[in-house]
Amino acid sequence: MLSCQVIMNALDHLAPRSLAEDWDNPGLLVGSFAQKVSRIMVALDVDDAVVDEAIERKADMIVAHHPAIFHGMKQLRTDLPLGRRLAKLVTHHIAVAAAHTNLDIARGGVNDVLAARLGLEKLSAFVVTGESDGEVESLGRIGTLPAPVSIEDFAGHVKTSLHVSHVRLAAAANRPVRCVAVCGGAGAEFIDKAAIRGADVYVTGDVKYHEAQRAVELGMHVVDAGHFGTEFPVVSVLAEHLRAALENERGEIEIFITNRQQDVFQVVI
Question: What are phi and psi of 47, to 5 degrees?
Answer without folding.
Answer: -105, 180
